[in-house]
Amino acid sequence: MNIKKILLSLLLSLVVFFIGGATWIISLFSAPNSVYPNIAISAFLALWLLCMAFIWNWATPKTRLLAFVAAAVAMVATAAVYEANSSYHRNIDQVSESEVDLSAYTPFASGTLAATLGEPSTLKFTQDFPSLDGATALYPLYSAFVMATYPQDYSSSQEGVMEKYKTVDCTNTDGAYRRLISGDVDVIFVAGPSQGQLEMALQEGVELVLTPIGRESFVFFVNSKNPVDGLSISAVRDIYSGKVANWKELGGKNTAIRAYQRPSNSGSQSALARMMGDVPLMDAPKEDIVNMMGGMIENVSAYRNYDNAIGYSFLFYTTKMAASNKIKLLEINGVAPSKENALNGSYPFTSEFYAVTAGTENPNAQAFIDWILTSQGQALVDKTGYIPLN
Hints:
By secondary structure, the chain is an alpha/beta fold. The protein has helices at 3-30, 36-56, 61-90, 139-149, 154-157, 173-182, 195-203, 233-241, 267-276, 293-301, 315-321, 339-343, 365-372, 375-384, and strands at 132-134, 187-190, 209-223, 230-231, 258-259, 309-314, 327-329, 331-332, 350-357. The strands form two sheets. Strands 1, 2, 3, 5, 6, 7 and 9 form a seven-stranded mixed β-sheet that branches. Strands 4-8 form a two-stranded parallel sheet. It is elongated and about 105 Å long.
């Protein structure tokens, strides 16, 4: 027995495995989801085998060299393929947290997309213009209300209004409820409040007065390449409760379902909670919570989610404000989400949205809401793309 070879083998093994182990741990923490930790451990294992082959004269020198070169080439090729694949995915359908350009619906702006009444309004304000805020999806609607009832120079005519409290603003559902409860605006246009918003109002001693002014459909969508075209109500609840986690159980591919959600107190998240009823909503991973409603559509339409993502929003927003041919709306219980099916009552996820006040002292706030409920106000609900009450 060659003691020197044994000692040399033990020493080299300690050195190689110590350095190799340290390198593997570093690469695991610096690039945990990459191929590099595996390449690192493979490289040091190959080095250790080469050292043992030299010490114990395993195989011929030529064979040892060829084996080492083959191992090195395989590891370099693996790294190159990994980088090429990563670069390819990074540069396809990058997802952003952007929202739609609401300036396209600015009241009285040249070329605005907001609907017009087509006849003189029976209500015209000359002063005490109600300050407004609301959900992103409803901005086109209350912009149309403003154009029908406010003078074109309303923003400059409103005395004592600070820039931070613009007469007509859009800070999204949660922001609008917060501003209303704080007394910063007179009327907001939103979906019904979440439990958190009700508790906030209660804590501030504020009573929320909700007046239904129209109806809208709550829709679910997947990437256009997903083979699933529809779900039952129970299947949607199973997905968002975590009971069903693979599309294969719903007639799709054998792939995990990535169910995106919105932050609590957003309008669409509150609508999801109401749709779930008594079924507990699962806690979504942080990376699956999308801050902006437009980001929900972008995430589901992205290339990397083509076979497994699902999201939700409102019909008008999804088909008009942020329309995308990279997603498809799902049928629910065999009924397609459309304005026609909402009108005839066959689409199950259709609910009211509201003009909400909280004790405003503006004398025109109630007159404004009353006008919205007239035939003229309801005509603008219809023209915008929502469902009027009657």
